[in-house]
Amino acid sequence: MSLAKFSVKNPILMNMLMIIVFIGGFYVIKNIPKEEMPAVDMGAFNISVSYRGVSPEEMERNVVNKIEEELQDMDDIDYISSTSQEGMASIYVQMESSANMERAWNDINAEIDKVKDLPENASDPYILEINMREVNSICSVVISGDKDDNTLREITEDFEDDLLKIDHISKSESSGTRAREFWIEVDNDKLNQYGITYNEIKQIISTTNSNTPGGELDVGNSQYLVRTMGEYSSLKEIQDQIVRMDENGSALRLKDFTTVKDTLEERETIGKYNGVNGINIQVFKKEEGNIIDVVKDVRELCEAYEERIPNIRAEVRNDGSIRVENSINTLSSNAVMGIVLVFIVLFIFLGWKNALYAAWGIPFSFLLTIIFMNFFDVTLNNLSLFGLILVLGMIVDDAIIVLENIHRYAEMGYSKYEAAIKGTQEIMWPVIAAVATTISAFLPLLWMEGMMGKMLGNFTIVVILALTSSLIECLLLLPSHVGEFGTAKIKHKKEHKLHTFLMKHYRNSIIWALSHRTIYIASLVLVLIGAGFMMVSGAVKFEFFPKSTPKTLKINLETTVGSSLEHTNNVVTEIEEMAMNISQKDDIESIVSIIGSYTNKFTVELSSNYASVSIDFVDADKMQYDYQDIKKTLITNLANIKGLKLYKLKETTQGGARSEYDIELKTFGDDIETLEGIGDDIMAKLEMIPGLEEIETSKNEGKSEIRIIPNKEALYMNGLNESTITNTVSAALYGLTISKYRGMGIEEYDIILKADESQIASFADLQNIKVRNKRGELIPIKDLASFSINQGYSKIEHYDLDRKFTVTAQCGFYNDNGIKKKRTPSEVIEILRGSKIRNTKGILSDFEARYPGYRLEYGGIEEQQNETYSSLGLALLIAVLMIFTILATQFKSTIKPLIVMSALPFAFIGVIIGLFVTGLSFSMMTMIAVLALAGIVVNDSLVLVDFVERERSEGRDRWNSLINAGTIRLRPIIMTTVTTIAGFLPMILSTSVATEDWKPMAVAIAFGLGFATILTLYLVPVLFSITDSMKALFSKDKNISIKEALKDN
């Protein structure tokens, strides 16, 4: 029994299947996890170590080098990069795309465990496996108000505790808070007076403040645990700690020469929201859960805090749920509009019942796709939602082909049951082949390498699942519904005027094309050349990542090296006030500032002269002013900010990531000073190239540092070692964590030993800090070490264990003999490297000869483009081979697949015309659309060729079989094309930011398909006739002309 007959003979089963899918689909929609972006595993780890008060060079030597040396022995590592800066090190490990991440996690932990000689006061390495869910928060909450720091800290801690009680929230990360600490501030004058050292205080506190188990005691039938309870339970106990007894029996206590206080850690950063001190909390979601519901719960918690605590504001910003809602609304509106348009088109050609059958397949296919997504652990996110939006017009194509063929049989007088069975059975394999070719076009996207390939994985899976669902619907449910609910017998009615008009003019035009094949082919080739010229001439611009309107403009800034946190805060306050008072201020939603740090990719750069100011704009749909005008205003006003040394602008869109730099030149070697000199040389050369702007280097002036060089002989003679000086100086300046305070609660806080800040205010104060030697004498550290003042580095970067220095630039416009031109990254790279094809020498082609032992790598957007081109080129090749294999299997021929695929290169004409008309650029998304077109445009050709074969099997001659097949397939070809384009129309016409990134793909597919359809109806018959003519040259059969063939009809 054929599949069609099974469907028609089992209507109850088919109806139950439909009901199950609808009920199950709506259930899954309600419960499927919803998030902004999929949790793409980035195949990387980040290792961070903090070591307070240590210079970048010390971090490099004592931390980074040791960790990197262990990691380099791991398998499947692509590269290791690191940044050493004051008090912090960050090591980024990128794995090969083929790496097993679970095994890599175990391996990296094992290698880190081998590093045994990290400095005593350095933190344990913290390892983070990076995926989109770990680095992208679903929203952030800013808590601000007229409260002191301690109160804000307590409110924030309570808020974070309540946040974690909300279902599906995995973690929260706050910045701008200061942890509670207990300080023991030493009066150095009294310390010297009493003859006590920092090390002695540390020893007394660490040994006294502990609870020690003493074993078990059996008393009769009872057993007791024994513990010595020595931990401090109050601030007073610390103050009253006896340090020593004098000869008169009097106790010397800590409070006699120190100040012990319950306070907050020293301020390293300041958080602000709209100019008011605040704390920023990043909120992260678990894999399961609905981002819309979770953020709603977060908002309700914010409202509850504002009601409960006077003068407190808790505001949600960077709300990812809004973008997900926008995508869902776009899908819903596009689906409704698509169903209406499909119904209208089919109503015109096939009547209202058939239109209803086809339109009904759209929600069924969507719901079945959602069910499949749940099985494949695909969440409802912006990428999967776009996949659903993209296939909206395509999922009805196969149903239209089947339905039109059933309708044709019904018009021929067959009963509704026979028409459903014969119409479906006749077209089943061509339809399966057509869907398979479309899937084959998308399938290679799953094999794309790099981050782009991983991001497109969700999108590709959804497209494939949706096409599969539509195939199930058209081959199983559609025949059953037509057989059960269709009209018993169709009375032959007059064709629709539009159909009659199209049939008449198509027949005349195809006869002309077949009679003038050379002219027709030559015309197409000329048009194709013209489309190529439009690309080369710049009529259609090429942009790898077209820049959409940013949601946030982030200003990473630096004040003069050595500036205090307060000074940098004053500079930031000026910037905030300036931004809040520009003429376009109504388009600014909020301003969030962090003083003391800024983020660079996955690395947090810490320094008192660093800050970031993030200016959030209202949605692009609601902006009253042009973004570029706002940006120009801000840049102009930044030039007038006093104390601002330099700044870098970073734009964040609502869509996805954008390449950070157009040009990125990375140099590698051993000596930092040499690398800086090379960087200056490269920078000077880049400044000579017209059209380059924002030319910068990674060179950042570090703080001046006092270097203490221990005298090993003096230390030995006094029975001391280097750690004596290190611990003493650390305690005196930054403070040394010597123990923990728990009190009566479960929380624990650091006990910090440090000097009174007012007593170490000069170079001499530092030199005169005393330590006790083996003879019990107090001697200043200047007798044990020499001192020098040197210029340090703000950070030291590595790449694969080599030191790295970077020069970056952005491409802009330049004047070429009065003509304004846009400089492209590829042009710049050619100027720098030279070209073997053009036999030109680049201005950096002699780099290795000039700088032996150092190497240069080219990066930036050009590198991304080359990687993507390579992956897409391979994907296109695989897609074409898969499509050819499917067609060759279907037709059992190698020539006919080539005829079917002949429309592929000419679809490019429609893509270029579409981009030119809409003013869009040829981008990476357009290239993916071209890849998708490879599978879509062959569908009509496939069925058309199949009908040519059927006509000839029934005895039609070579010419009439071509004309008749085109005439018979005209109606379904037009319907499938119009409905597919109709599915893309809402996105093409939309002005919403939610569709901005995806519009080029929609335009390319819609216009490419439209143009390819016209070609299919003419090009396929023309090429078929050419192959017929070539076969006739070697055949004994009479080769009749088209005029002779038409005389007999």
Protein model, in words:
The protein is 51% helix and 22% strand. The chain is of the alpha+beta class and 1049 residues long. Among the domains are: 437 residues, Up-down Bundle (Multidrug efflux transporter AcrB transmembrane fold); 98 residues, Alpha-Beta Plaits, CATH 3.30.70.1430; 84 residues, Multidrug efflux transporter AcrB TolC docking domain, DN and DC subdomains (2-Layer Sandwich), CATH 3.30.2090.10; 104 residues, Alpha-Beta Plaits (2-Layer Sandwich), CATH 3.30.70.1430. The strands form nine sheets. Strands 1, 2, 3, 4, 20, 21, 28, 29 and 34 form a nine-stranded antiparallel beta sheet that branches. Strands 5, 6, 13, 14, 15, 16, 17, 18 and 19 form a nine-stranded antiparallel beta sheet that branches. The two termini are 39 Å apart. About 1% of the residues have low confidence.
Name the CATH homologous superfamily of the domain at 3-34 and 323-544 and 865-1047.
Multidrug efflux transporter AcrB transmembrane domain
Overall pLDDT level: 84
Beta-strand level of the residues, as a percent range? 15-25%
Q: Which blocks of ≥5 consecutive residues have pLDDT under 50?
A: 654-659
Please state the structural category: alpha+beta
| C-alpha termini separation | 39 Å
Question: CATH topology of the domain at 3-34 and 323-544 and 865-1047, anyone?
Answer: Multidrug efflux transporter AcrB transmembrane fold
User: How many whole angstroms does the radius of gyration measure?
Assistant: 37 Å
**Shape, please?**
elongated
Provide the helix percentage: 40-55%
Topology, number of strands: 34
Q: Looking at the chains present, what oligomeric state does this protein adopt?
A: single chain
CATH architecture of the domain at 3-34 and 323-544 and 865-1047: Up-down Bundle
Number of helices: 34
